[in-house]
């Protein structure tokens, strides 16, 4: 009976790319693209941080401009959620940078080393040097009668031309090279990185032992050899040096799975300088697996259902209920019915009250505020993304306050009957004035007040407090 083959998880696309990097050029390009992918991911997280900051500012603006206490409380809860998301995003960037920055450095270093090794292993002789000879024995050959030297022998390394168009395709396509689910990383054999090789060919011409012993001119070829490629002397011996490339063996080393513990030990795993360098590289790349997987959720993704169920922002909602005196300060949990009631009373009874009545208006409802003595009309989202967010917050906060203490700093002002209780005044604002009433969808003067006070200075709040005439253009409340 044949046993069924053991099932294994298929390699991820990034792991397949690592396995496909089997040549020096492919390994170099893999390292470079992986480093670029890490930098791109970090930049994207920074963009998210800016978005979280803008969202918090937009909700702060909306809270300052809210028309009533429930709106203000709802926006303040969402603002708190946004601040939490902003802090979480900043912390996430710190964590990612602590992992990504060393990895980018290691990838760049190894890429440079492989490229340099490829250039060295593809070198060619450019000049054989000036031929010289001497009767003295050369170092390392004490019993020799003479020596010859090729002074100035040079070799030229070749540039490692790695074409992305030719190399980065199929399994090694650039978009597949990412840190996501990466379980292997290509690494070359030590000899390729640390060793250079030559082939030495010795030669002779004529009968060297018949030469004049005193001059020993027979021991080296003449100058023509280095320029013309031929031996000019009648009797000569010598040698030729030819660069010999070391074969690169690129292996995909496991950084996850069964061999992770063996390959991710850190610098202590190596006994030589090169072994330690490899151990540090692998350990650093292994650390990429520690990247926090769950992204930070935007406050604008808050839902009515999420708040009511306790799945979202439960700690913030709990704090709001405790602050409102609706929950004991020692309470560890929130009663489900009490939670649902609080959310409904704050945000509204609709199944999508948070989404439709609080979040959607951020990009639609326009607010009026003064910045640099000029009136501006913008949505909270636009204000948050602009340069006047601080000024707008100050203006709208002051506009919402309007306490008696602030009103008392202004001089008495005569208010004509036609200027009181303007028709477009909101219902809640209209009812604040004892001389006004809201009927038929409009704010009106009460009949008796209109007849009695026509043309007179009207004290509406007491002996030292007077209502300030409000220009309609300066109304800065959310029309929700």
From TrEMBL:
One of its GO terms (cellular component) is plasma membrane. InterPro entries: VSG_C_dom_sf. This is Variant surface glycoprotein 616. Its main location: membrane. VSG forms a coat on the surface of the parasite. The trypanosome evades the immune response of the host by expressing a series of antigenically distinct VSGs from an estimated 1000 VSG genes. It is found in: Cell membrane. Keywords: Cell membrane, Glycoprotein, GPI-anchor, Lipoprotein, Membrane. It is a lipid-anchor; GPI-anchor.
């Amino acid at each position: 009976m044949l046993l069924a083959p053991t099932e294994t998880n298929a390699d991820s696309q990034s792991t397949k790319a690592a396995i496909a990097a089997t040549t020096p050029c492919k390994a170099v390009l893999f390292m470079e693209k992986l480093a670029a992918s890490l930098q791109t991911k970090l930049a994207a997280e920074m963009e998210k941080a800016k978005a979280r900051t803008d969202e918090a500012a937009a909700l702060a603006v909306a809270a300052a401009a809210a028309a009533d206490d429930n709106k203000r409380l709802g926006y303040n809860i969402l603002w708190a959620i946004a601040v939490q998301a902003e802090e979480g995003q900043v912390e996430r960037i710190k964590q990612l940078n602590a992992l990504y920055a060393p990895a980018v450095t290691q990838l760049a270093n190894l890429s440079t080393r492989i490229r340099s090794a490829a250039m060295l292993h593809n070198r060619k002789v450019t000049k054989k040097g000036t031929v010289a000879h001497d009767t003295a024995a050369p170092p390392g050959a004490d019993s020799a009668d003479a020596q010859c030297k090729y002074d100035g022998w040079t070799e030229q390394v070749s540039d490692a031309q790695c074409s992305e168009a030719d190399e980065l395709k199929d399994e090694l396509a650039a978009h597949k090279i990412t840190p996501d689910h990466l379980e292997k990383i290509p690494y070359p054999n030590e000899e390729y990185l640390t060793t250079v090789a030559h082939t030495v060919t010795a030669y002779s011409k004529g009968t060297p032992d018949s030469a004049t012993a005193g001059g020993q001119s027979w021991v080296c070829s003449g100058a023509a050899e280095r320029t013309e490629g031929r031996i000019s002397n009648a009797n000569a011996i010598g040698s030729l040096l030819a660069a010999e490339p070391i074969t690169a063996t690129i292996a995909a080393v496991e950084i996850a799975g069964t061999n992770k513990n063996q390959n991710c030990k850190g610098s202590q795993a190596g006994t030589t300088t090169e072994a330690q360098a490899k151990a540090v590289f692998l350990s650093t790349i292994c650390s990429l697996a520690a990247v926090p997987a769950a992204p930070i959720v935007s406050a604008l993704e808050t839902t009515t259902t999420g708040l009511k169920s306790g799945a979202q922002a439960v700690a913030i909602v709990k704090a709001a209920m405790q602050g409102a005196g609706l929950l004991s300060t020692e309470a560890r949990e929130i009663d489900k019915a009490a939670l649902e009631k609080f959310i409904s009373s704050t945000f509204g009874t609709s199944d999508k009250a948070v989404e439709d009545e609080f979040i959607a208006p951020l990009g639609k409802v326009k607010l009026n505020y003064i910045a640099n003595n000029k009136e501006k009309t913008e949505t909270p989202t636009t204000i948050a993304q602009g340069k006047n967010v601080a000024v707008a917050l100050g203006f709208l906060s002051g506009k919402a306050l309007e306490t008696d203490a602030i009103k008392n700093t202004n001089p008495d002002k005569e208010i004509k009957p036609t200027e009181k209780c303007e028709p477009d005044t909101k219902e809640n604002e209209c009812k604040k004035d004892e001389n006004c009433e809201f009927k038929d969808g409009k704010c009106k003067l009460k009949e008796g007040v209109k007849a009695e006070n026509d043309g007179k200075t009207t004290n509406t709040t007491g002996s030292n407090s007077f209502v300030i005439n409000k220009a309609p253009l300066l109304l800065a409340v959310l029309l929700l």
